[in-house]
Design goal:
The protein is mainly alpha-helical. Helix content is 57%, strand content 3%. A 3-stranded antiparallel beta sheet has the order 1-2-3. The protein binds acetyl coenzyme *A.
Length: 361
């Protein structure tokens, strides 16, 4: 039995391939390096959706349709925002998404793409005692997300966020994508499938790690000694957030893609000194992990530089997993459609190891 389903192949997919030995990520025939900084998020959504929706328009039209979906979602969720605001920001976003129609069409898919981008800034603003800002259907997706958060978005920050959304759009059969496919295999609608993915993404062993990365950096800065702080964590059986991966045995290629984006922002505000400090912590962590776990190659994963990038563009750490969901939702939808098309219910077996009832003669 594979506890954790290690090495089990549970789906054929045309969507993405994670090469954990070579350290490569392929998304529908394109390497990650080809896409990040060159393709906009809406183009990558189109790439992932191609063949899964009959009425999929071209790139420009799709960007417009996503903008219109942001406006539609905002109108739908506006009456309930005040009730969602007291929840933690991730639960508030997820609860807001439960009211979306549960169909399988492109309209349903676009509302799901729009929803995290609309709900996250609106709930953050309400939490700060500010009025939510309505979406602008004509703006680009990442730029509008920042505008809804802060009132304006500089082109460089919008580009950085767009690169982040592209970087995390899909990643093989990770826990949240698998959860999405299991629900889609029952022929439930897209909203039901995406809600399953959202649940799985929340945990710190998956998409919940980048917020704690910031807490770690702050604690190390306060302590003044990265190696001593990290060694103490390991001695207490804690995991170092932003390091390690089930599939990658080498450095996660997304870490370098995001680090390059943060470097481009480094002349801005405190991002440069934060990056230099994070690089020092990264080196210390790799060394501490090398000594503590010599049997395992534990390398930097996507979450370490996610934390720096999302901090630099202006999101608070409690909303980092929301922004991850805003990017990954495109991959989840495409996987859900791919799974539905197989017509095959995912239904593995368990091995019973509990007590056996007395047999009545
Ligand atoms: N810090 C300390 N020890 C670690 C870490 C880490 N970050 N990662 C793995 N290990 C250790 C484990 O404790 C275990 O040690 P042991 O054999 O002495 O018990 C050994 O390495 C193997 O651990 P597994 O859990 O089997 O490794 P797996 O590859 O399944 O874990 C995971 C992957 C869950 C991501 C793990 O590396 C981890 O917990 N990392 C920290 C959290 C994190 O960064 N999550 C984001 C992942 S990326 C993403 O999902 C988008």
């Amino acid at each position: 039995m594979a506890n954790g389903l290690d090495d089990v192949v549970a789906a054929d997919t045309v969507l993405s391939d994670v090469d954990g030995v070579g350290g490569h990520l392929t998304i529908r025939g394109h390497s990650l390096a080809e896409l990040v900084g060159r393709w906009r998020y809406a183009q990558v959504v189109r790439l992932l959706f191609d063949g899964f929706f009959d009425d999929l328009p071209g790139d420009g039209e799709l960007e417009k349709a996503i903008g219109e979906a942001r406006v539609e979602v905002f109108e739908r969720v506006k009456p309930m925002l005040a009730q969602l605001a007291p929840l933690d920001i991730y639960s508030g976003m997820r609860a807001g998404m439960t009211v979306l129609p549960d169909g399988d069409g492109l309209d349903d898919a676009l509302r799901l793409i729009a929803a995290p981008a609309v709900l996250t800034p609106a709930l953050l603003r309400l939490g700060r005692g500010e009025t939510p800002i309505a979406p602008d259907a004509k703006a680009d997706h990442a730029g509008d997300m920042l505008r809804m958060l802060a009132g304006s978005a500089s082109p460089s920050l919008a580009r950085a966020l767009d690169s982040y959304l592209v970087t995390v759009c899909d990643h093989g059969l990770n826990a949240s994508t698998f959860a999405t496919r299991v629900v889609a295999s029952t022929q439930a609608g897209l909203t039901s499938a995406i809600l399953a993915g959202l649940g799985a993404l929340k945990g710190p062993l998956h998409g919940g790690a980048p917020g704690p990365v910031i807490e770690m950096l702050d604690a190390i800065e306060a302590s003044g000694d990265a190696t001593a702080w990290l060694s103490n964590e390991i001695a207490h059986g804690e995991r170092i957030m932003g390091f390690g991966h089930r599939i990658y045995r080498v450095r996660d290629p997304r870490a370098d893609a995001l680090k390059a984006v943060v470097r481009q922002l480094a002349s801005r505000n405190e991002t440069g000194s934060r990056l230099a400090f994070a690089e020092t912590v990264e080196q210390a962590a790799l060394e501490v992990l090398r000594i503590a776990k010599p049997q395992r190659s534990i390398q930097t994963n996507v979450e370490f530089y996610t934390a720096l990038l999302l901090e630099a563009v202006g999101f608070p750490k409690e909303a980092f997993s929301n922004v991850f969901a805003a990017g990954r939702v495109a991959g989840w939808i495409a996987h859900a459609r791919e799974q539905q098309a197989t017509g095959r219910l995912i239904r593995p077996q368990s091995r019973y190891v509990g007590p056996v009832p007395d047999l009545v003669a």
